[in-house]
Amino acid sequence: MTDGRRADDVTGRSGRTTEGTNRRHEVVKENTVGSLVLPVAPTRGRLRPLGLDEVRITGGFWAGRRHTNVSATLGHCRDWMERVGWTGNFRATAQGRAHRDRRGREFADSEVYKLLEAMAWQAGTLDTGTLDTDITALTEVVAPAQEPDGYLNTAFGHPGQAPRYSDLEWGHELYCHGHLIQAGVAQARTRGEGELTKIARRAADHVCAAFGPGGIEGVCGHPEIETALVELARLTGEQRYLDQAALFIDRRGQGTLTDGEFGRVYFQDDLPVRRATVLRGHAVRALYLAAGAVDLAVETGDDDLLDAVVRQWEAAVARRTYLTGGMGSHHRDESFGDDFVLPPDRAYSETCAGVASVMLCWRLLLATGEPRYADLAERTLFNVVATSPAEDGRAFFYANTLHRRHRGAAPAVDAVSPRAESGLRAPWFAVSCCPTNVARTLAQLPAYLATADDHGVQLHQYADAEIATSLQGGHGVALCVRTDYPSGGNVTVRIDRSSSDRPWTVSLRVPAWTAGAPAWLVDPDGTRRTVPPGMAEVTRRFRPGEEIRLELPVRPRWIRADPRVDAVRGTVAVQRGPLVYCAESVDLPDGHDVDVIRVDPAAPPEDGTDGTVVTAGQITAYDGQRGEPWPYRPLDATAVAPCADRTEIVLVPYHSWANRGPSTVRVWLPVVEPHRAAPPDSTPTEK
Amino acid sequence: MTDGRRADDVTGRSGRTTEGTNRRHEVVKENTVGSLVLPVAPTRGRLRPLGLDEVRITGGFWAGRRHTNVSATLGHCRDWMERVGWTGNFRATAQGRAHRDRRGREFADSEVYKLLEAMAWQAGTLDTGTLDTDITALTEVVAPAQEPDGYLNTAFGHPGQAPRYSDLEWGHELYCHGHLIQAGVAQARTRGEGELTKIARRAADHVCAAFGPGGIEGVCGHPEIETALVELARLTGEQRYLDQAALFIDRRGQGTLTDGEFGRVYFQDDLPVRRATVLRGHAVRALYLAAGAVDLAVETGDDDLLDAVVRQWEAAVARRTYLTGGMGSHHRDESFGDDFVLPPDRAYSETCAGVASVMLCWRLLLATGEPRYADLAERTLFNVVATSPAEDGRAFFYANTLHRRHRGAAPAVDAVSPRAESGLRAPWFAVSCCPTNVARTLAQLPAYLATADDHGVQLHQYADAEIATSLQGGHGVALCVRTDYPSGGNVTVRIDRSSSDRPWTVSLRVPAWTAGAPAWLVDPDGTRRTVPPGMAEVTRRFRPGEEIRLELPVRPRWIRADPRVDAVRGTVAVQRGPLVYCAESVDLPDGHDVDVIRVDPAAPPEDGTDGTVVTAGQITAYDGQRGEPWPYRPLDATAVAPCADRTEIVLVPYHSWANRGPSTVRVWLPVVEPHRAAPPDSTPTEK
Predict the structure, then answer these.
(1) CB of B345 within 8 A of CB of A566?
(2) pLDDT averaged over chain B?
(3) How many CB atoms lie within 10 A of CB B543?
(4) Which of A315, A318, A310, A341 is nearest to A328 (CA)?
(5) B328 touches chain A (CB under 8 A)
(6) What are the residues whose beta carbons fall under 8 Å from the beta carbon of A148, sequence distance 6 or more?
(7) B328 and B342 in contact (C-beta within 8 Å)?
(8) CA B264 to CA B270: how far, in whole Å?
(9) Which chain B residue lies closest to A574 (C-alpha atoms)?
(10) How much is the pTM?
(11) ipTM of the assembly?
(12) Are strands A428-429 and A416-417 parallel, antiparallel or unpaired?
């Protein structure tokens, strides 16, 4: 930290961690000198994460998002939970009336826990204690609902309710316990173990008792408990939490869940984790499970398990991922589609799947050190996670379509919306997992920027930031990052401190999106060289004040898809740096909607004003065809050529769409047909 | 009928209709001399339907399907209903143990009724009485479950169950009553009013009492009761059934149903029927409702209502219908998508939506006389309704995808399948509406071939058939149709009887698919003329033995889609006559799957052997790209050109696919890219 007072504060807080954290500390000490304020704290791995006390975002895109998160979203979530009765469920349970007064879906408890987790991580990076008061108050709502044996759930197990664990497929009890544990870990890591951590540990102890050896031989229909238990084991050093996570990972795919309408694949219970070759089924479930499997593999040194997840990730990224990084093309079961089934207009691309994909990427990056995971995380953060919340942080997309054909009405600001069909972002959903999931991701975000290893510091995501950590041997270093990213591609890293005169290395990720458009690195001594995608390294005896400059070729480029992505054949998209762009109807002349656009890929897209991209294109008038009775005709029949007006088409970053009222949007833009001749007359269509 | 004995039988049976049927008879007599053996018997309309006693299918495509229906499918359905307990539900209800022993979904009763309806219509065209015994036996299972006040449902209203009509959104009680009424009408029309008809009338009386003026001001979440009540009014002449149908039509769109996860549009309760501009929401619900609205409009002379449905149909056909005629592109809510959202690989195209579309087309055809309705009915019958059942009539597609990318496993022959995900047809489903719906459609099919009006006879669908009816003034006519349709396009209509020497008219539908490829008509006197799409008429003093010949240009043609159907841009399909064709992996060399195919639209498709179509194309090897880590790349990066082998590609009728083991399939075939140059080397892809 460059702020001495804050650094002291953090040190003080970290010192308050309890005896239970000893084992992790020891292990970490064996390898590295590390922060305790970590969302994910593996004891092994190629890279060591930096804590929220070591990385501070000071400005730019993500600083703005994080400001909105703390100033608007957290309170918004708290208010809505009270309003729809999800916090009230805990009171009702404590007072013995849950069977009568409970509100919301089975998993509503988890939203309260995710909010607590978000508040805790955000509190860890704030100078004020406001959020601590909120956490205490909300914890006091939750606490009385916990049973003496540690079980905590407002939907099951009380008089008049279904028995505990009577519906492992859909009941989400272990899933809720998992999010409770994550919240408890967040408190311990940011403020030291408090009441929330104690509740979480009691719940975890209950889970181990209920599902451990000799207990229920089952798994939860929605993975989450796995990653939570591993993180609790990391916090506390207690092996039994790790053992329980291993039991859950190994049990999955053994067919302990019933085969519902969506099939057992929905729950990833069709195949053991080690044998699966691609991410499949419900996207959030699949990604949470994979994250938990990486956590377990790292802690137990199980390289086979790690390899299995890497293989699944590779296949999903190569054949089941949208250009935005979004995952999941099925609305019906919120699941991955078959390979190359990626229709833009039916993209589900659930916000929470984006969050989960970032979780998985981060774990794989720490384990392997490979920049491809940071590449996908960047793409997903900018184009899915950043797309969900409205500019004011008080409305959200649940699903993130890449093509919307009609302007919907704005959802009522005071109503609960269905999850996937709203035209604009909605303030709250019946299944409202995205607001709190976005909130906890933004709260953790500084921790995803950089890592360290024995040789130095690695920068994975670019934002104005101040980074301070200790390298091997207690060698203290501090870096200041200044950048106009993602609007521009200039990244300057200034060394503010280097307490040793040994050489060390600063590594900078050169994003994969630079392929074919070289990036440049300028050393502190002024040497300038092109750097290919991957990690660019500068190793030297750094002196304070020295600067490294990375110049990334941020300019708009046409992107095309593998021809097997049938749904976007004959179209191109625009990407500019890490940002996917889109055409939005509000930027078209004459009230047109986006489906009239044609672009000419021979004309390169260019930078416009205020972060827009402009390209020469056509507005195609379909009015002549609007009245066609049947949309199919013989190829040998002469077609009515739509009259096309040449025009400039303005594109905006995809994450920014739908902030200017109801609109239509498309990411993939049809290309002009090369040889369209106007026929002398039209023939009847056939039906 | 050309068979005197059967004609007498029918007359005798018709004579057994009860007093209640008088009004309809009178009205019909005022307009026409008509059959009573009619699935749909409007009292007004441009065309008069012919009965199952007036039209007999004697050979060809549909005769085979109908033979399979009676020899396999009806018994298959009966056996499965017993096996899964859906007939047992009626026994359990009668014995007061439904609350404990009931099986299946809320609407399982309706399958029993649809089977009864199918049996009744099929019995009306058989020379044997075997099915009558089955109907009696099955009616005896159903009858004891009816309450004294006429209510009949095994899922609600008994001790330990939810109260009657406590869940109008999802309970399906009125829907079930509707199918019961349809079965009762089928019995009355084919065999005279029997026990089944009496049960149905008691149920209808109960519905009128419960939902009539002063009763529950609600509608059923699933339309069906509307069309059923109108048909019962037509049968019995009782105005109150018509009035009740009108109440249900007028109440819909008033927001009496709650707004569930899919929104009120799912139930068509978002807008009054008269104000809606397009079919929307759940496809089967939308189409059943539209059919009921046409029925009501026709009976009440409500041209505004009729116009509203015509407008909705036009919009849905122009922008929300697959090439196959299939409707519904959403898996999630089985609903219509937005305009032009027609992804082949996520086509839902539910079999029952095909059935319902044929129902609606038939009603609109009778009301307006416009051949466009018969055009869509033909397309839907051959490419959706005929696609669902397997060749043996013992397995079914619930959804009818136009593109399947992986070979699924064959569903177990003895297991209940999820509704939409099986790779092959499945013997039975948890929601098993398609087997009985296909069965009742095939059972009624002869009635859809031809109509009459004051001037003569109209032929709408082509099959080997014998047609005998009386025209105005008791002028008896008989026609014999011989055709190789749909394999070939030759239709010969021989006049076998014409009891008057006044001129009359034979009209033959020239399908819309002939546009741009002229059809020929040969008069009895040998005059040969081209005939455009629409109705071709021959008016003369026909003498027995005279023949009319229609020559339809049945040859394979490339079809392309409106560019706004984004999902099939850059592809073509093949249609041959009314049949849509497809590439199926079992016809490709070397075990390839269909996604390697490219076709050259410059090379016309040609007839192959055994009903296949062949075309010159390419097999594109993607092995080089299989390992690509990311499916998107800059357009300015050189691409790896897949190596392509020129080959002959064999296409088969879409309705025949998946009868040769698990396979992949696609209807829309990507076209070869015109100027693909092999680059000297490849560049790295970006992620």
Answers:
(1) yes
(2) 90
(3) 10
(4) A341
(5) no
(6) none
(7) no
(8) 5
(9) B634
(10) 0.91
(11) 0.88
(12) parallel
